[in-house]
Amino acid sequence: MAGRPMWENPLRAPVAYGRLAVPQLFAELQSPEPEKKLRALASLQDLLHDPERLYPTVTKGYVEKMKLLLEDEDPSVRSKTCEVLGLLCTHSLGRQVLLSSPLLSSLFWLLDDPSSPCRKNVLRVLKLLTLHPSGADALLTLVPKLLLKLQQQQQQEEGEQISVEEEKKVEVNEEEKVDEENQQEQREGLKMEQTEEVKDVKEEEEEEELLVLSLISCCSRRDALPALSSDAVSVLKPRLTHPCTHIRREATAAMMALSVPMAGKHRLCEEAMLPLLVGLLRDEDVHVRTNTVGVIMYTVITTAGKLQCLKLNVVSALLDLLTEAPPFKKAPRLMEEKERWTRKALVLYSLRALTSLAEAPEGRRLLMEQLPLLRRSCEEEEDAEVIRAAHAAIEVVTWTP
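The line above is the sequence of Radial spoke head 14 homolog; the predicted structure tokens follow.
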């Protein structure tokens, strides 16, 4: 029996030449054998990096043929199909075609897939769809389901924490009864193995949770009302103090999107979220601090938001952020552009929040004492937008009837 040629990749299907490549691979995808499907999908994924191959795949109706692959019994086939769709969604044309195809309902269904890699790949595809405005609109109906997933995961984590505490109590009782060293060593070794397994599972869960939060944030920027009607504020609240920095970052970004409409501002005040948010102003991550200041900036537009923030001494915290952030002309020139924009957003949000707080008598009184600091920050700046925001804050503070 002849062996496999040395040049042939066992993980890839042979690819025909030129225009026949894509039709040939889609013909192999009709095979009942999962291995052949996976090899064809891997080769198709390689081909679609070339825009000349991607265009006919999208325009000649091949995308619709992938619906059956999303319903395949093999989880690896479903997951790999989502990877291919994710590659298509990196192009604007691919996103438009997928939004108008019947595959969208199948992707929604796969959010509850038992396979974790499949669920994560689906979330990545949906996240790419939100890059198109019509994609965010199409996914707004999905927001309540995403929030429900977060709520269920939170309940599961609380249940696991309770079970871990009970196991510790049982172990303590057993150790009081049994003093044999060999049994204790076996328990410790087993405990280490279980800890590593739990750690891996926890990392996978955090990655999936991060994708869900990012998707909620993107959809809420388009329209926050579906999330607010599903009690998103209380669902997101535990994520604001999560030990993972990236989850806190996405949770505060979603909370910022929820605080834009008036209903969101009132909900934040009613749910007593501001004390928790004020604590995040001292978070170690600059993105978390920036998003938190953004939430406060939107919330202090309301009278209730102003009064609560003044009681929490937010003015001094915002002034501290202004003094900590270096002006543009003093910032390192080698600083990455993204970091510079994050720093600019932090300063702008802080100045606008202070401007709103200065509309209250108590806020104006506090800021009058810090007027030299505001003027100095204005003089040291070279960014026009930051200078305008600083001038606006000074005008409101120094306004007299």
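Note on the example: The two ends are 97 Å apart (CA to CA). The chain is about 70% helix and 0% strand.
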